[in-house]
Fold:
Amino acid sequence: MVFLFVLTAGPRTEAVETVAELAAGARALGHSVEVFMAGDGVAHAGALAGRMPVTLCEADLRWRQTQPPEIPGVRRGSLVDLARLCRDADRVMVFS
Structure:
């Protein structure tokens, strides 16, 4: 099963930790995990990098005038990528 976690919550929430714990549990059970960060969620790129595939919304990075350094396992994408991830996922969970 493929789980997609969409994270739009800002830095003052526990959402990133919730996603990290749920994703770790899903992976421990043999499931695949993807994370798409949009809105204020793009601030969390470093928190999950290296633990699971992460895609950052390029438009939201531009809007916030944020360009995080290149982080292995973190790519920039668009809403087209989010649509593809949703199509390919068995379950989609949104944290905002």
